[in-house]
Amino acid sequence: MIELLVNLIVSVMAAATPLLLAATGELIVEKVAVLNLGVEGMMLMGAIAGFAVAHETGQLWLALLAAIAAGMTLSFLFAVLTLTLQANQTATGLALTIFGRGFSALVGAGYVGIAAPTLPKIHLPVLSDLPFFGATLFSYDPLIYLALILLAATAYFLTRTHAGLILRAVGDQHDAAHVLGYRVIRIRYLAVLFGGAMAGLAGAYMSLSYTPLWAQDMIAGRGWVALALVTFAAWRPFWLLIGAWLFGGIMYLSLYVQGLGVPVPSAMLSALPYVGTVVVLVLISRDHRRIRLHRPAMLGRPFQATN
Amino acid sequence: MTAPLLQLRGIVKQFPGCLANDHVDLTIGQHQIHALLGENGAGKSTLVKIIYGVMKPDEGEIIWQGQPVVIQNPAHARRLGIGMVFQHLSLFEALTVADNIALGLNDAKDRIGLRERIIDVSKSYGLPVDPDRTVHDLSVGERQRIEIVRCLLQNPKLLIMDEPTSVLTPQEAETLFVTLRRLASEGCSILYISHKLEEVRALCEESTIMRLGKVVAHVKPKEKTARELAGIMISAELKPVADRRPPPETGKVRLSVDKLTLRAPSEFGTALKDISFQVRGGEVLGIAGIAGNGQGELMDALSGEMPAGRPETITLDDVAAGHMGPYQRRKLGGCFVPEERNGHGAVTTMSLAENAFLSAHLRGALVKLGLIDRNKTQDFAEKVIARFDVRTTGSKAMAKSLSGGNLQKFLVGREVMLEPSVLVVSQPTWGVDAGAAAAIHEAVLALAASGAAVVVISQDLDEIFSLADRIAVIAAGHLSEPVKVGEASLEKIGLLMGGVKAEQHHGETSHA
What we know:
The complex is a heterodimer. Chain A has helices at about 1-30, 40-55, 60-85, 90-110, 135, 140-160, 160-170, 175-180, 185-210, 220-230, 235-260, 265-285, 290-295; strands at about 120-125, 140. By secondary structure, chain A is mainly α.
């Protein structure tokens, strides 16, 4: 029983991490009222960039930097198109995902089925020395810790710092922010780039730790789940964590049930984490007043300064 | 004599198709409450946005306490000691009062102990605000207090107030004046923008009056009567109405409004109070008034967007229509041109032909077997374009590709071409150049001459005087008794518009 529980926790933590990283980035993007639907594409680019650099150089930190750079490059493209050139955000985001899928498949064609170094595990001192389950429960790879730290830092940033307040203000009323002298477009650029970096990192986690190899389309819709998480968590960091863990939990259960040989088509079981997470989050986020309060009022609306 | 606090010299600001500020000079002395007077669109808001660094002037010089400065942005203006209370736009609804105030303070050191300082300032100036409430729960008056407190926390030398009382009840306005006088006595100059004449006379020592982007006078308001101020503010060069046929006094009443009372649709709206008037075929009734006095609500009530409840409140050609929506009223022969072109009068992302279809399909018979008759629709749109000289690439052009004036010509033309029995237009020439305005005026008069009843709601008195046979003024939701154009003097209408009479009788508190 204890073993089952430990396995559950370990696998939930792992499955939740890419979602947490990507969703934390997208949370910041949406808080400044930009909707970037290109998360899936940016994650794929991060995954292949990280994997390729790890394979070629053997340097993991270089691989992570490459993944971040790949995600940021794509998000910069998005920012130029939607913020500077005022293109439609929904269409541009979708195009970004399509582009990311195609381009990562092209670049990654030569990397299918080969190995690259994977992220080492970090053992928390003392805790991982606990008897029985300590070694498994308290040693994860660095990105799992980083995801949690970044989420907490983001929550702190948004609610406790002046810069976070400015960021929320830009998402709430960009005209008012402009009139008070804040650089709306510049702030949105920075947020979108942060979102790209986080999506790239999430992709690298997938190809360097979660399933440490490259396969076409290996993100398998996690970018979309991350997007859904942000909305259904009603733009609150804590609920992102709940949603991501929920996804990981259902993922584990469906694999477990599959392992028991229950006669349910495996395709249905694989779909369960996606469907289940969304359904549960819809159910817990039905408070419209709360959503209105947290939803960035200008979400998806372009801003143009009058000079 | 010390140097004046602020001097503007020859400020020019050009927008596409409109010279908003044309060599404007302005001098504000120390400890002075200075009024900036003018009609809507006179360029007042543009000028103060330049002072506050939101916009940059194309030409001209700003001299602050004797030193020429180039104000880079609002943060720079605030560092110089300029604070501004906006008419709208500058609060964040989802954030708390304290957060909103913090966003207007540049230096981190100003934000230390902010809650306590907000409470201190609000107590000492009698401006109660609760730092922990979320803005979207607050009334307009409370929101304005937040902005004032935000400015006061920075010890400004100049406080700009953009039409502060246009959203306040008379009682709230009175409290505001007490605060402003006290600030002036403590050494803070105030630039006070308004078009309410009595208010300016009571409060301000100096004034600068603008009209169509130019400064037309510098006067001491206390030495002038409200009547004289209105005369300077409003065009003195009214053209005589060209060969107007006398309106047929015996024509059939085609539009009748009887004791129309409507509750304000939102807390920012104006309630309509017991409005009655009749318009005969062949007649043009002009409704004057300053923005936000119930024009929008009256327009919505007449068009059917806000049905009036009791059917007999509004009668179109002897049919009680008060309960009907816009579609049914159009069936009865009513046509309506709302004030807002984009999104209300026209769907901006649709072509002109499609926009023509939306309002004209019924009277223009543009439907064949339940489907859009494309050829007829295009024909109709092209006729409107040709007759009203709409500058566009054709009937397939998107509405948003047209300039404001051209789109307005198209929208008015669309309704006029349908030969309605009753036409109601709001701000028919808002933002339209003189040539286009003349074309629209001509079309409206021709329609009336053909026997239609026409109502023109406008803030432009020149327009009202040149179009209307009778004139009424709407102020705080009340409509004055219509008077014949020959018996109405500009001063009388101007005073009614400034709320000189109406406000003394009817405070906002009188309605439930």
